[in-house]
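[step 3/7] fold_predict: job queued, chain A
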Amino acid sequence: MSMISSSSAHRSNECNVIATRRGSAVPSSDTARNIVAFIEAAPNSRVVIAIDGRSGAGKTTLARQIIQTTSLAVCMIEVESFIEGWSGLVNGIQHIAQAIVVPFIERGFAVAREWNWHGECWGGERRIPQSGSAAVLLVVGCGSSSRALAHHIDASVWIDCPEEVRRSRVTSREGDPSLWWRLWSEQEDTLLTDYDSASHATWRIQRI
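[step 4/7] structure written:
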């Protein structure tokens, strides 16, 4: 079902609130088509879309659906690839804004160093996209529509999902998250206290 409510969304005064069944694995493909329609109608030559939500909400899955739904040149980055480890989320968002999003808006590509999670150190540089330029940048991950990025993006998605469902999904994907779950959640809380990304979202997906 679909519900519409008022919001201070990025390019619109409406926040599209889309409810999906709690047991569904991914957001509806209709959501991806709605987002692609927005992207293709955007007047600017480069579009930045943030897909936000807490860990395990289904953000990357939706991003992949968007890429599969459009013929435009789309590149995607995941927030955790460009922050300094488990405690680097809050400060890392500002780095992503300046090192990736701003250059992309200006020239259609960016170059930034990636975090090596296995070595727990900064790794080599990554070009986004790998070659040429892109029309669309999807910034995917916790904090992707937070204050540091909000004024750079054209629209955002917030995905709500109960914690028990999110944690179960992360456990299936990565193993037991007990060592980092609380630390990561506290950083999510910090970002949301500073700027309520959910209420500012252009589209809000609620898994019920």
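[step 5/7] annotate
The beta strands are 2-6, 14-20, 47-53, 74-78, 110-116, 121-128, 136-140, 155-160, 203-207.
The first helix runs from residue 29 to 41.
exit 0
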